[in-house]
Design a protein that fits this description.
The chain is mainly alpha-helical and 152 residues long. 74% of the residues lie in helices and 3% in strands. The chain has 6 helices and 2 strands, in the order E-E-H-H-H-H-H-H. The chain has helices spanning 19-23, 25-44, 47-77, 79-82, 85-111, 118-143; strands at 13-14, 17-18. Residues 16-150 form the DUF2231 domain. InterPro entries: DUF2231_TM. The chain crosses the membrane at residues 21-43, 55-76, 88-107, 119-137.
Length: 152
């Protein structure tokens, strides 16, 4: 039987429930949905999909930065989290991903209805790839290091 690990308690929590994992699902869904709406626009050239992509990019980027505040509070205020390489890798990948998502939204907003550009689709795909890496590392923090998990 595997040795039970001592949990690492989150400081950014409500009633013992860590905020970061609760808050991250919606922005992740928006940024992954962005790939689908970009593809739909590429396939149909219907301006609806371009508008949907603009909104998903904005909601995903803004929501991700808000959720990252809770993660950053834990990273900087909990010594045992700071000691985990997975935590630093997760944070760095997440900042890279959110920076690309923000750039994606800003360029879409600036270009307006000028039409779909392939860079938008490539940025969305690259962001989705970074989400997958950040999610893997976040899962390691929870399942291997018991970050934010009540094991009592």
């Amino acid at each position: 039987m595997a040795e039970q690990q001592e949990s690492i308690i989150s400081r950014a929590a409500i009633a013992g429930h860590p905020l970061h994992p609760m808050m991250i699902h919606f922005p992740v869904a928006a940024l992954l949905g962005l790939v689908a709406t970009d593809f739909a626009y590429f396939w149909t050239t219907d301006p609806f999909w371009a508008r949907a992509s603009l909104w998903l990019a904005g909601v995903g980027a803004a929501g991700g930065w808000i959720a990252s505040i809770a993660g950053m509070i834990d990273l900087v205020s909990v010594k045992r989290i700071r000691q985990k390489i997975s935590a630093w890798c997760h944070a760095i990948i997440a900042v890279m991903m959110l920076s690309l998502a923000s750039l994606n939204w800003m360029l879409r907003y600036r270009h307006g209805d000028d039409g779909f550009e392939m860079w938008a689709f490539y940025l969305s795909l690259f962001t989705a790839g970074l989400i997958a890496i950040a999610a893997y590392l976040g899962g390691r923090l929870v399942y291997e290091h018991a970050v934010g998990v009540d094991v009592d």
